[in-house]
């Protein structure tokens, strides 16, 4: 029997459930996440979406926003999803789906997928997703680095000397706040990029500021880990022209990171979780 995994990606805006074999998503279903619900409800929603594939998979793997430590799930940013500390995610998945289960952070799963099937091509890499917040993952010497508590790669939580989180100065939430301050109107990251394309100087300035700060982060990562490649993903990281701006602000050539776009899009989490579940036995 060909090894097949039921992979689940639970994020702040959507739940993606997929039937995965190797690097192929055979089928997928998506629904909106209800932020006011709880993890058991999200698992039940995922189970309902997977019913047409009953009997077609041998294990389940979940990629989730937040921290996963020894199979237990804890929120990192309650504004994304509010989860009580140490929810027994792997145990709950096993009990509901009646098969072996594994869980890990979604950005770590995406990093592994890009290493195995995407832009990484089995090279040492750091993956950074710049979206509503900022997350990340690292694959070094062929190993996904999760750390003692599961927080490895959470670059958005790095603090400056004033104690400000990095993600609070570059992410979608920052774009919304900075754009509102500049214009007196409500905005999100998408509308800022649209305004910049139409020639709005304030929007151009915000995008360049975010790119300059991301370039600084990439330079610091290069000095800390010296990976072969740093990949940018997420709605902002993959926005037209953003990577070019980051490159323009990068360090001098000798120490400049090798930057590239992530390739696997919104399926990176399910592909990475499914594959990692076959490796991390």
UniProtKB/TrEMBL annotation:
Record InterPro entries: ATPase_NBD, ROK
GO biological process terms held by the UniProt record: N-acetylneuraminate catabolic process
Gene3D superfamilies associated with the record: 3.30.420.40
Family matches, as Pfam families: ROK
GO molecular function ontology, one term from the record: N-acylmannosamine kinase activity
Name of the protein described by the UniProt record: ROK family protein
Organism this protein belongs to: Natronospirillum operosum
């Amino acid at each position: 029997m060909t090894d097949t995994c039921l992979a689940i990606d639970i994020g702040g805006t959507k739940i993606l459930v997929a039937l995965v074999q190797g690097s192929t998503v055979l089928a997928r279903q998506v629904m909106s996440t209800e932020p006011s619900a709880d993890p058991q409800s999200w698992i039940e929603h995922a189970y309902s979406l997977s019913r047409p594939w009953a009997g077609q998979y041998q294990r389940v793997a979940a990629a989730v926003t937040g921290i996963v430590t020894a199979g237990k799930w804890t929120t990192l940013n309650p504004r994304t999803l509010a989860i009580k500390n140490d929810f027994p995610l792997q145990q709950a998945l096993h009990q509901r789906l009646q098969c072996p289960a594994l869980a890990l952070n979604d950005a770590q799963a995406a990093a592994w997928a890009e290493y195995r099937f995407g832009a990484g091509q089995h090279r040492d890499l750091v993956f950074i997703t710049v979206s509503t917040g900022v997350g990340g993952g690292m694959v070094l010497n062929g190993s996904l680095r999760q750390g003692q508590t599961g927080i490895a790669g959470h670059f958005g939580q790095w603090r400056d000397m004033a104690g400000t989180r990095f993600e609070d100065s570059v992410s979608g939430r920052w774009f919304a706040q900075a754009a509102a301050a500049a214009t007196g109107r409500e905005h999100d990251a998408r509308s800022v990029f649209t305004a910049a394309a139409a020639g709005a100087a304030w929007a151009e300035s915000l995008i360049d500021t975010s790119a300059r700060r991301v370039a600084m982060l990439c330079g610091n990562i290069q000095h800390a880990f010296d990976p072969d490649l740093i990949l940018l993903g997420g709605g902002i990281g993959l926005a037209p022209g953003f990577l070019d701006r980051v490159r323009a602000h990068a360090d001098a050539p000798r120490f400049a990171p090798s930057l590239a776009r992530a390739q696997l899009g919104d399926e990176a989490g399910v592909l990475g979780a499914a594959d990692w579940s076959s490796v991390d036995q």
